[in-house]
Amino acid sequence: MTPHLDFNSDAESQAMKQLFRGRILFAFGVVILLFSVLIGRMAYLQWFDFERYHLLAEDNRISVETLPPTRGKIYDRNQILLADNQPVFTLKMTREKMNDVDEVEQQIAELLPNLDQQRREDFFEKLRRTSRSKSLLLPYSLSEEEAARFAARSHLIPGVSLTARLKRTYPFGATGVHALGYVGRINSKELSKLNESEYRGTEVIGKSGIEKFYEKRLHGLPGIQQVETNARGRVLRKLETVPAVPGEDIQLTIDIGLQQFAESQFKEHKRGSIVAMDPQNGEILAYVSMPTFDPNLFVDGIDQKSYTSLLKNPHKPFINRGINGKYPPGSTIKPFVALGAIENNIISPNKKIYDPGYFEYKNHRYRDWKRTGHGLVDMHDAIVQSCDTYFYELSLDMGIDTIHDALSPFGFGQKTGIDIPGESKGILPSQAWKRETKGLPWYRGETIISSIGQGYNLTTPLQLAKATAILANGGKIIQPHLVRDAQRPPPEQIEIKNSQNWNRVIASMRDVMHGARGTARRHGIGLPFKMAGKTGTAQVFSLNEADYEEENIDKRLHDHSLFIGFAPFENPKIAVAVIVENGGSGSRTAAPMAVNVMKKYLQEHL
């Protein structure tokens, strides 16, 4: 039954109509107001804030990608490739497109079981700290099987894509690593010092050797590429590209064949160094520091187990012995001391002294290596037979400062300036040096042992090679270098007061190899060329008056074995310095290694 509305009067009916009309007008007003606000907002966005939202829309549609530069390659002197760039697959991850980072990490662990757990955890921790929109490359090169496995499941892992990149590779592995160096992941300390715009998109940087010293030349400059993408991030088209500037290729002075041969000389001895140099221009022909390590382990980041193993290796493979191994030079400095003495008219080269097997000074007996002595010897005999007593007596006539001044022009106690970072300068002692470093006066007894390369004297294998080269080339001070086009100062000339003095010393070194009583005469027999050399044996610790019995002493306390030499004698093409840690007698260990290296090189260059 329909309800009946009954108004008492016309007045009440009129009032109700007025109320209803008011409500309709109010509702209409509200609607008009809301539409006005909406239209006003649309007008504001369209006219006044257009640029801002247009740019935001463009950013969603157009993305800018960095194009990392191709790192320059490194070749040996014969254009044999030593450092290359190999195309590999890796995974690119963007946190913004991921649903759950933890879930992605678990999926990657299942897909890549060979990826080191620590490296994976470190990467995802870095990903969580990185801007959501920034992409990171997983520091791991996928095998073909792993790449195919990921491709089959990629649709199930949002935010992760398979991408190609160039990975640094070293075809010869551990050979020459201390000269060549290696690249590794950029760490936070390095990143803070880099120009970020130059390293955008780059994951690695030179860590040592040539790779570090010539980082600017090898690295190049990044480019950029604008691409249009759809809502899912798929690239629709490339809009604009500024290509990357590739790094420069570099050619070294090293002969990789000679390098391999020189390293093979250490088959019985684990530690030491060989530096072979062209004495005419300072080009390094072979640069050996043993033991070595494989630089390929570091390119993607070395796993903790392998790194710990290298760190704990008792033979210390990370030490670059060529420039950082500091050794007593032993008897290898005797030719330089002798030259200084006769150039300064301190002694006649023909003067003979008697060697009973020792030299006494202030109630202390300084022994010769030959306990029975050498009898009457002059300077020629003292170098050929390596007579300690002769130099003991000579040193007191010279004084330590004269010895210092005679050896300094050959580069002892100074950095050579080679193009490898971190070179040590060694020690060439003097009275001033001891006052400055020890705060103590110099004693004449210290001069005696300094004359045979003991005491405070410390030198690097590279310094010995440089000094030998200068002796071979007639006093031209050349700068050792590893890159053929390296910038270096013009060579200076050591002042020669009497060329006959140089000839005497060099002739004595020739007779070390070819004379009837030379300490290395057995290694000079049958050589197709004449060479000059000098053996050395450096004590690791002092025996005082005790006899040296090698078989009763711990291997680490055996004497170091040293040798310097150059060949051919008439027109030197190669100068070599060899140091074998705890190798014993220089004539027994270091000398044959040096002779073998020179024979190998001269077979192809005579």
Core attributes:
606 residues, five-stranded antiparallel sheet, 2 domains, Beta-lactamase, Penicillin-binding protein 2a (Domain 2), 22 helices, 37% helix, single chain, five-stranded mixed sheet, elongated, alpha+beta
What features would you describe in this structure?
The protein has 606 residues and is α+β, with helices and mostly antiparallel strands. 37% of the residues lie in helices and 18% in strands. The strands form seven sheets. Strands 2, 3, 4, 5 and 10 form a five-stranded mixed β-sheet that branches. The radius of gyration is 38 Å and the shape is elongated.
The DSSP helix count reads 22
Unreliable stretches covering 5 or more consecutive residues = 542-550
CATH architecture grouping of the largest domain = 3-Layer(aba) Sandwich
Overall body shape: elongated
Strand fraction equals 15-25%
Task: Tell me the radius of gyration.
Answer: 38 Å
**Structural class per helix/strand content?**
alpha+beta
Task: Estimate percent helicity.
Answer: 25-40%
- What name goes with the CATH superfamily of the largest domain? DD-peptidase/beta-lactamase superfamily
Q: State the major sheet.
A: 5 strands, mixed
- Number of beta-strand segments: 21
CATH class of the largest domain: Alpha Beta
Instruction: Give the number of domains.
Output: 2
Mean pLDDT: 89
